[in-house]
Write a structure and sequence with these properties.
The chain is of the alpha+beta class. Helices cover 30% and strands 33% of the residues. The chain folds into three domains: 3-123, PAS domain (Beta-Lactamase); 141-260, 2-Layer Sandwich (Beta-Lactamase), CATH 3.30.450.20; 276-384, Beta-Lactamase (2-Layer Sandwich), CATH 3.30.450.20. Helix 5 (159-168) crosses helix 7.
Length: 401
């Protein structure tokens, strides 16, 4: 066996195969030396391999990986998983340790120790997988974070104590990607991973509610709201997707992503105010007014309608219009007439009989159709005090005739 078979690896390297298969390859891709064990395993003789191009036994992916090591100037030993090719063209996976050095004026050389399987290769796979994940997270524009508790939070304690521990137990950033620093406007020459967690996730009433929400949902939530402070002093409302690592009823770490929803919340507040103002305005209309959905169900009634029908709002809203209008027009007829009208409304009020507080009373009904968010609705108004007659313009079930 060639002297190449004397591996320069530590004695504590675990391997399934006791003896390594060794060869020496130049930076130009020529096999300079090879031990008999490797040659026999691949179905070749040593003479077949020495002086041959490395493509004879090294797969394209293996050659690409090894060239990258040469270009990076690595010295080693570097663990790798490689694929060799035997004399019959079959793929042979191996676990390898690669050393880069110089050999007898040949320039840079690759000295490779290979086993059919070795524990160090599994560790290398994990390390490489970790590096890939970190690269992906660092390249993401979505702020990603992970908080680790040096003092795990005792989840068997009462809720107030758990919340206290979440903010006061020793904790630190396990990982924050660059997007996280940009999101919280950290000065560009600093790394958020070196900053205290409390500077962003401080204890305040909103964040205590957030912590309690996490606890009650087993640290598995999406779109949970918290209030954070940026490094420029501005306060923002943040939406979080969060997961947690829990062992033996203790919280060890939690991680997730954040989104700024301050603008959306301000817009929602403004819309709620506008809706409230609109409801007040509709309530002040002197004529009875009801809004009806596409199923003919009343979804809003103003104060005048409550007085006219003698019903409280909770007895009007949710009731079919046809149960309030006893005769003279049906919801179906109103819907057809307004939909087919060029102006989207009845051409003239319709005399109807309605169910009033003191029995049936006459009223003039008017209606107009409208759409919002792609759904059709009907606005129906009533003016009471008109005696209904048999010459109704819209008889029940005879719309459009």
């Amino acid at each position: 066996m060639s002297k190449l078979s004397e591996p320069c690896v530590s004695a504590d390297q675990p391997a399934i195969d006791d003896l390594a298969m060794v060869d020496l390859v130049s930076d130009h891709g020529v096999i300079l030396d090879c031990d008999a064990r490797q040659a026999a395993w691949l179905g070749h003789s040593v003479e077949d391999l020495v002086g041959a191009d490395w493509s004879l036994v090294y797969s394209r992916s293996a050659r690409k990986d090894l060239r990258a090591l040469l270009a990076a100037g690595a010295s080693g030993p570097v663990p790798r998983r490689l694929r060799l090719r035997d004399a019959e063209g079959r793929s042979r996976p191996v676990s390898a340790l690669v050393e880069i050095g110089r050999h007898r004026g040949e320039g840079l050389t690759l000295r490779l120790f290979k086993w059919r399987e070795a524990e160090f290769a599994r560790a290398a796979d994990l390390s490489e997988g970790k590096a890939v994940l970190i690269d992906i997270l660092n390249a993401s524009d979505d702020p990603c974070w992970c908080i680790e508790y040096a003092e795990p939070v005792d989840l068997s304690a009462p809720e107030p104590e758990i919340v206290r521990q979440m903010f006061e137990n020793r904790r630190h950033w396990r990982f924050c990607n660059p997007a996280m620093g940009r999101f919280y406007r950290l000065p560009g020459d600093q790394d958020l991973n070196d900053r205290p967690v409390r500077e962003i996730f401080d204890r305040n009433p909103e964040n205590e509610d957030f912590a309690l929400f996490l606890l009650r949902n087993n640290f598995d939530v999406v779109r949970a709201l918290s209030r954070d402070t940026r490094y420029d002093g501005t306060t923002i409302d943040v939406e979080n997707d969060v997961r947690g690592l829990i062992r033996n009823n203790c919280l060890f770490r939690m991680w997730g992503t954040v989104r700024d929803v301050s603008k959306q919340l301000r817009r929602s507040d403004e819309l709620r105010k506008q809706v409230g103002d609109l409801e007040l305005a509709l309530a002040a209309v002197p004529e009875a007014l009801a809004l009806v959905d596409e199923q003919g169900i009343v979804i809003f009634a103003n104060a005048a309608a409550e007085t006219l029908f003698g019903l409280s709002p909770d007895l009007i809203v949710g009731r079919p219009l046809d149960r309030l209008v006893r005769s003279g027009a049906s919801f179906e007829a109103l819907a057809v007439q307004t939909r087919e009208s060029p102006i989207g409304a009845l051409h003239a009020p319709v005399p109807v009989m309605i169910a009033g507080r003191d029995g049936a009373i006459g009223a003039d009904l008017n209606a107009r159709c409208f759409q919002t968010r792609g759904r059709p609705f009907l606005a129906v108004s009533f003016r009471n005090g008109v005696t209904a007659h048999s010459g109704d313009l819209l008889h029940r079930g005879r719309a459009g005739q």
